[in-house]
Structure formats: C-alpha cells, structure tokens
TrEMBL record:
Coiled coil: none annotated. The lineage of its organism: Bacteria, Pseudomonadati, Pseudomonadota, Alphaproteobacteria, Hyphomicrobiales. It comes from Phreatobacter cathodiphilus. Keywords: Carbohydrate metabolism, Hydrolase, Magnesium, Metal-binding. Signal peptide: none annotated. This is Phosphoglycolate phosphatase. The keyword Metal-binding applies.
Amino acid sequence: MAAATIVFDLDGTLVDTHPDLIGTLSWLLEEEGLDAIDLEAAKKLIGHGMRPMVENALKLKGRGFDKAEVDAVFARYIAVYETRLTRESRPFPGMLDALDRLADQGMTLAVCTNKVERLAKKLLDELDMSRRFAVIAGADTYGVRKPDPGHLLMTLRDAGGDPARAVMVGDSDTDIRAAQGAGVPVVAYSGGYTAIPLASLDPDVIIDHYDVLPETVGRLLSSPKV
C-alpha cells in the first residue's frame, strides 16, 4: 500500500501566527491613521491570504476600495511583517509531537498554505520546521490557491502523494472546501481562525488538540471510501 501523505495548512493550523500577523496589521492601521481592529475580528480575516486580510481590514475601516491604495498599503505590510515572522508565532500545542508520530509511521508531510511561498518557507525555516515537509506550497506556487482544489492536488502531486491516500488538516473554510473539492478527507482544528462554525462546513472530523491527530488520521485512512 502506498505511503500516505498528510497536508497541513499553515496559519491557524501548524503555527499560531496571529500574534505577528495581527500585530503587524495593528501597526499598519495605526500608521494609516485608523483605529486598531478587534483581535477576534482580525483573526477571522486570516485564511484567504495576507493581501485579502489587509484589504478586508481596510474595508472594515471604510478604506481599501481603490486597488492602487491597497497595493501600496499591502507592500508596507509585507515589508514590516517579514521582519517579525516569528517574534511571537509558535507551533500549536502538541503539533510537533504529532508531526513526529506521523513521520515515524512512514507518512509524507506537506504544507498547502495561502501565505506567499517565500514567507511560508522563511517562517518555517525560522521555527526549524521546514525540514519536516516534502513540499511547502504557497498561494503563488501554482497560480491557484485554496479553496481551489487544484492547490491541494498539485501539492500532493509534488509530494509524490495520491489523493486516495491523503488527509488534509486545516482550520477554516478554505481548507475544508479545497479538500472536499479534491475528494480528500479533512481534519478541522477547532483552535484556529475560522470565521465560520466548523460543524457547518461538514469536515470529516473536528479535533480540539493535536494529541489525537495521529489516531484520527489513521482512522480516516483505514475507512472504506464510499
């Protein structure tokens, strides 16, 4: 039987990045003369990529309807965010142990994120996590991004995986919809940044802690496909 491939989202799934994502966003809004955004409201903007996050944050403040303005503000955001990628961002509790256990079972690990590939790789490098993954695919890697299932399918292809022997792990609608579109079972992590109640998105399983991830993945892989 072919080895399984487990594909992870990054922000809100592998790593709790919101302190640095939103810390930079708060700085940016202040620089633009705008009020800071509420933490919980800002977390719900994460998942579709950094540019949509910045654009939607501006729109919440009555700005961000002009492309040239968004381009300029987003460029400032990226320049500052890159200097503080891992100032406070850390893997979620239990994640590193779960990755070790999955790898020990012979599974291939990969990342499929709506973060720009360069920043995703740099963030994971700084946390000494890149070496764990066969592929780190970002929003700009293939010309499509989640929820387009092609993003996940091409990540699997480059990792040498098979959708029939794969599981997606994510925290939001973009992850779940991409997996469902690709015909890949999906584990949803409840501690992430979803703006939509996870149960309403109908993932295969919802977990609250990564201690149970290896066993959960094993059950999904052994379940007969309908």
